[in-house]
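Bumping with the actual sequence this time:
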Amino acid sequence: MVEEKTTDLFARVKDELPSDAKVSDIKFEGCEVVLYTKSKDFFLENNGALKSIVSKLKKRIILRPDPSICLDMEKAKIIIEKLIPKEAGLKEVTFEPAFSRVVIEADKPGLVIGKGGETLREIKKQILWFPQIKRAPAIPSDVVKVLRQIIHDESDFRKDFLNKVGKDIHSGWKETKWIRLTSLGGFREVGRSCILIQTPESRILLDCGIKPGNNEFPHLEAPEFDINHLNAVILSHAHMDHCGAVPLLYKMGYKGPLYCTTPTRDLMVLLCMDYIEIMQREGGLVPYSTKDIKEAVKHTICIDYDEVSDITPDVRLTLLNSGHIMGGSLIHLHIGNGLHNILYTGDYKFDRTALFEPASTNFARAETVITESTYGSIEDVQPRRDETESNLLEIVNETIKRGGKVLIPSFAVERSQDLMAILYNGKFKGTVYCDGMIWDATAIHTTYPEYFNRDLQKQILQQGENPFTDKMFKRIGSMKEREKILKSEEPCVIIATSGMLIAGPSVWWLKKLAEDEKSTLLFVGYQGEGSLGRRIQKGWSEIPMEEDGRTKSVPIKLEVKTITGLSGHSDIKQLMNYLKRLKQRPERIIVDHGESKKCVEFARNIHNTFRIETMAPKNLETIRLK
């Protein structure tokens, strides 16, 4: 753990450097130590000196050129454009002088790097900037473009902010004698997930979501929570029940770091912006503004899977693949000098899907496990994945054959892309329309193919075959286009948000297709209690719909089908199997993120199976973990 203060650490780094290093400055970027050198030779060829220091000090160290030796930006850009092959699809070159960094965005980053890194080394040698390579989205994404621009525009702020975070991490600590957990949301319920972890040194928040449908927020008024003493926020993934209240923290005055993967940051922004738009359209109380979302972005520190990062003096964070959605993470906290380890699963899938590998078990210890229980009842057994995909294709093809339209209410993130991959790999021959946020979410997915499972990565990166850019998928961008598709006699598939028929274009499509006996309403995801989707599943034969300011009943004559095996959540068998596969038996398991009865039942089932301490606390309970 972090035991030495900033001055001590920097002094040790300097002592280890060779005499010709000519280091002009040492800064933090979060937990990383960044050296700036005036020596061209040391910047280009440091002969393993950095590796030796990293090995000895157990710190991540980055070497960058001092601004004084960087080539003029216009000249550097010309050289970059000359060195990068045309096949790489160079899109943009952006300089960040505050970090002596140049960001190169291209369709094929591998060609920018070159065989064995040859092209990248030559770029570095000729321009003397620190090059960072990014993938251009296969589908243009306004969100990714805006976010990259914000990060660029705020580079001076980011440099100071990251240095301050590093100093806070290395502020020194004595001993961690106790650890407490307070449930601020998402316990014995689905929605507004939020957990406060406290030690004598640290205050860390795991997720901060809302409850979709009724807009309930976590209990941030709880006496244990103090926004002014919050050290870090960690976001497991970008679903609104986990990320929806994160910008609210910045509105309340939080100025600290938000840790997550890069796709999680991007998807969080997309969903939170859409949430504001919906609230404004429906005349609801908007809890935060776009300015607060921007503040969250400015304060985000993105880390990759399996990357160990100090986040406070006595806590180390590792994010691992959760198998749930793009960039979704299990959160592993190593606290104190080996004192205790916490695994917070967030939402996870312990099964291979069309998009992702199963949730990771790549960690040695977890004395406390906090696990979701969305499908924690013994009755929650999902069919096999291959059977589910065959069933979906069969329902779709039968509807198309009889001349109908298939309406699939879907979450914009993960489920929609899962459906697209299944339809593509299943060789569906019709047209698939994407309505709502789905196209924007898919564009973000195409930016980060390295987060997909190995087969899909190979398909996209090596074989050049991207399912999401296939011509069968078409975007719906206006009401005029919806009306045109509705009037057309062409059978088709319509994937539309929201997934629970709470709001959005899926409700509009249901209203228009409800009386069409040739068409099918196909549920492919969890329908929350009280949602229109859940009511239809329970057998409602009529649904209330507003038209011209009046409410009328619309009879449901289209076929209603439900497929359960596509969930991004583990079923009861997968949940139990995951706990069984952990390398070390936990001391306790805490159950959250499930309907009240399922939380209690799942906790009881775990106890009876593993004979370890289990609990299903309610919101606002505090538990001493150590």
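The tokens above came from a reply further down the thread. The chain has a mean pLDDT of 94.
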